[in-house]
Amino acid sequence: MDRRDWNDRYAAHELLWGAEPNRFVAEELRDVWPRGRALDLACGEGRNAIWLAKLGWLVTAVDYSQVAIERARRLAAEQHVDVEWIEADVATFAPAADVFNLVIIAYLHLPESSRRTVLAHAASALGPGGILFMIGHARLNLTQGVGGPQRSDLLWEPSEIRSEVAALGLTVQRAEHVRRPVETAEGIHDAIDTLLLAEREAG
Fold first, then answer.
1. What CATH number labels 3-199?
2. pTM value?
């Protein structure tokens, strides 16, 4: 999907992904300290960025959908939190280096070359001791789960993401499949995601 497709998709829904943070973002990052600067790449309508800001993080959030960013600004204003919203393509966006304590990449599914560029920028953005958190649809979803892109090359597998992140000099703490129940027309089924947690050496 290109920028126009995403604008149309967001415009067709009041809140495409809901207002609450992704469950794994909340579970894994709720107790992270200290709460410094966070970068949310491909933030969509801002649910994770707004949640982090409420916890006291200084958040920069990036997405190339104008509709999503405008909605995120409105939601943040309604909830009285400050977030730096940037309308830009994360495949080419280069954040400031060595300044973020946390970088989130949630459900960003790109061709391998673009994904590697985003990961390189994310790793560069982390300051010493900074955390990279990733959650996305797993390739295993094609045969055992539900939802997500139906192209194998866009989906994540733990071993592949682990290798790509480790090659950037980060220490991978977790890289694994996780499951979340999803309501479908046929009942409740599990979506299978890949979760990764990595850290830049404190120095």
1. 3.40.50.150
2. 0.92
